[in-house]
Amino acid sequence: MKFDTATDIFFVIAVFVPGFIYDGVLSTFVPRRESRMRELLLLRLLMGTALNYAVCSPIIYLLVTGALFPNSDVLAGFTWLAITFLVPVALGVIGAKAAHGRWLQPITAKLKLRQIHPIPTGWDWKFSRVEPCYLLVTLRDGTRIAGFFGDESMASSDPTHRDLYLERAYTIPEQGPWQAVADSAGVYIDGSQVSFIEFRN
User: Helices in the chain by DSSP H: which ranges?
Assistant: First the structure.
């Protein structure tokens, strides 16, 4: 696509940017099912843009007809900027909250429909909402690793490679509570070696 005029650039921004921002914000909080088909990715962006303009349609109508800010092009311009760049952020945050809260569950339950969770895996679901807690990780060879998963910890959201970083490591005595490892700077765990994980408050 060639951009010969400012109108062409504005058209591309108006069509793709709101959807791109919405999808980017939503993906930050909700792990998404990956799609390698360009058509589906494009459709996802366009759906985000369509949602954005549908929500803002009353304001857009007032702007286009001149009923809103008829004597101030500056305020009208800032309103268009807000519609294009700020509203998609808010919609992305609301969408993420809805995905985690499952707001539609009472409705689908009454209709006797089983809702497919938008988050693709149990790993993604748990680590996208887990509060600081202690983990007991059992590896495939039976080794157990104890650690604390807090604000400085990380669980991978890449579906092709899972890994886990725990900010503090602990030893597991046969009797009594876990003991913090002296001078621990954390522990890295390759997700491919994990058999299962226990979450403890």
Answer: 6-29, 38-55, 57-65, 73-81, 87-101, 105-110, 122-127
Amino acid at 42: L
For the record, the structure tokens of 89 come out as 């952020």
Tokens standing for residue 20 = 């791109």
Q: Is the pTM of this model over 0.85?
A: no
Task: Tell me which DSSP letter residue 152 carries.
Answer: T
Structure tokens at 194: 């994990």
Q: What is the pLDDT of residue 158?
A: 81
Q: With beta carbons less than 8 A apart as the criterion, state whether 128 and 31 touch.
A: yes
Is residue 170 classed as helix, strand or coil in its secondary structure?
strand
**How many residues appear in the chain?**
201
Sign of CA dihedral 147, 151, 153, 156: positive
Please report, for the chain, how many H helices and E strands are present, in that order.
7, 8
Q: Phi then psi for 121, rounded to 5 degrees?
A: -135, 160
For 166-179, the pLDDT digits (tens) are 999 999 998 888 99
CA distance 200 to 146: 10
Residue-wise pLDDT for 122-172, tens only, equals: 888 888 888 999 999 999 999 999 999 999 999 998 878 899 999 999 999
What is the C-alpha to C-alpha distance for residues 111 and 185, in angstroms, rounded to an integer?
51
pLDDT tens-place string over residues 89-107: 999 999 888 877 666 677 7
